[in-house]
Automatic annotation (TrEMBL):
One GO BP annotation of this record: central nervous system development
Designated name of the protein: RNA-binding protein Musashi homolog 2-like
Keywords of this entry: Repeat, RNA-binding
Region (Disordered): 1-23
Stretches with biased composition (Polar residues): 1-12
Species per Swiss-Prot/TrEMBL record: Lepidothrix coronata
GO terms, molecular function: mRNA binding
Gene name of the record: LOC108500517
Superkingdom, natural source: Eukaryota
């Protein structure tokens, strides 16, 4: 099963459920297909779902995917192995957490930092405030 980067959620809106058998697989080769991902991880246990995330516009792989095992104990088997290589590339499997569970970075703070950096750079090159373009 291939994915285009969009997500379907079940349950109430804004509430992502944690699946203990789901893993995030980072560092995938651009050539990795859902079938090759499934073939590699099936040695750790039965796979319920497997996807390589793709850009919705270009359909090119985004370099990561997800594998969901039927038995959460399979996740421990994957994590017990220190090195994973698929399609001649070292991959980085991790336990997947719902997006809502990730700490959210405030955009306001990021913009303040970026704004401060702009002012510093502008002063170094002799630009006056208000003359940014």
């Amino acid at each position: 099963m291939e994915a285009d980067g969009s997500q379907a959620t079940s349950g109430s809106p804004g509430e992502a459920q944690h699946d203990p058998g789901k893993m995030f697989i980072g560092g995938l080769s651009w050539q990795t297909s859902p079938d090759s991902l499934r073939d590699y991880f099936s040695k750790f246990g039965e796979i319920r779902e497997c996807m390589v995330m793709r850009d919705p516009t270009t359909k090119r792989s985004r370099g990561f995917g997800f594998v969901t095992f039927a038995d959460p104990a399979s996740v421990d088997k994957v994590l017990a192995q220190p090195h994973h290589e698929l399609d001649s590339k070292t991959i980085d499997p991790k336990v997947a957490f719902p997006r809502r569970a990730q700490p959210k970075v405030s955009r306001r703070i990021d913009n303040r930092i970026l704004g401060t950096q702009r002012v510093i750079v502008a002063r170094q090159f002799g630009f006056q405030p208000g003359n940014w373009q």
